[in-house]
Design a protein that fits this description.
Layout: H1 3-10, H2 14-22, E1 30-31, E2 37-38, E3 50-57, H3 63-80, E4 84-92, H4 101-108, E5 114-117, H5 120-123, H6 128-137, E6 141-144, H7 152-171, H8 177-187
Parallel strand pairs: 3-4, 3-5, 5-6
Antiparallel strand pairs: 1-2
Helix pairs in contact: 1-2, 7-8
Protein name: IS607 family transposase
Pfam families: Resolvase (PF00239)
InterPro entries: Recombinase/Transposase-rel, Resolv_N, Resolvase-like_N_sf, Transpos_IS607
C-alpha cells in the first residue's frame, strides 16, 4: 500500500507517517523506482520482511574488495529498513550470463519474500523487468536500493563476455582474431587493463 493509505488506516496525518518512515519505524517500507513510499500490507505478515540479499561483480579481482563491500552495504540497508535477512549471496559473474549458479539457487529458494540488490544491473544487465514480473507473480518483490549505476569497468566486462559468447557461436569455441581485436579496442582506454593494445 502507499504511505497515504497507511496513514489513513492508522488514523494519522501523512506527515506523521512520513516521519515514521524516515526514522525506519515502518518495517519493510521502501521507496520504489519512482520514489513512491510503499508499505507492506500488515496482513501479509513476515514473508515480505524476509529478505534475500544479492551482490555481484564481473571481475574476479574485485572479489575481496568491491564484492564484499557491496554485499555489506546491501545487508546494512536491509537491516536498517526492518528486513530480516534469510540469505545473503555474493557472486562473481557477468551480468549477461544467465547461468549464474548462486543466483539460480537463490531464485529457487522459497524462504524469502523480498530480493534486495544495490543496482538493477547487479541482478541482470538485461531483462530486469521480466525478473520483476516473475517474482511479483509469486507474491514476492525486488527492491533496488540505488537506481543509478555508472560502473564503466563492469559494463565493459559484460560487453567483452557478449563478444566472446557470440564469437564462439559464429566461429566455434576458439577465440577468433576478430573477437580479440574488438576486445582490445574496448580495453585499450581502460586504465590498468592488461588487455590493452
Amino acid at each position: 500500500m502507499k504511505l497515504s493509505e497507511y496513514a489513513r488506516l492508522h488514523g494519522i496525518q501523512y506527515r506523521a507517517a512520513w516521519e515514521r518512515f524516515r526514522l525506519g519505524r515502518i518495517p519493510g517500507a521502501y521507496k520504489d523506482e519512482v520514489g513512491t513510499i510503499i508499505v507492506p500490507d500488515e496482513s501479509e505478515g513476515a514473508p515480505l520482511r524476509d529478505a534475500a540479499v544479492y551482490a555481484r561483480v564481473s571481475d574476479p579481482s574485485k572479489r575481496k574488495t568491491q564484492l564484499v563491500a557491496q554485499r555489506k552495504r546491501v545487508e546494512d540497508w536491509a537491516i536498517a529498513n526492518g528486513y530480516r535477512i534469510v540469505v545473503s549471496v555474493a557472486e562473481v559473474g557477468s551480468g549477461v550470463n544467465d547461468k549464474r549458479r548462486r543466483l539460480s539457487a537463490l531464485l529457487k529458494r522459497e524462504d524469502w519474500g523480498t530480493l534486495i540488490v544495490e543496482h538493477k544491473d547487479r541482478l541482470t544487465r538485461f531483462g530486469f523487468n521480466w525478473f520483476s514480473l516473475f517474482i511479483e507473480a509469486q507474491g514476492r518483490r525486488i527492491i533496488v536500493i540505488n537506481e543509478a549505476s555508472d560502473d564503466r569497468t563492469d559494463l565493459v566486462q559484460d560487453l567483452i563476455a557478449i563478444i566472446y559468447s557470440f564469437s564462439a557461436r559464429l566461429y566455434g569455441q576458439r577465440r577468433s582474431k576478430k573477437a580479440v581485436k574488438m576486445v582490445n579496442m574496448l580495453t585499450e582506454d581502460e586504465p590498468g587493463d592488461s588487455h590493452g593494445a
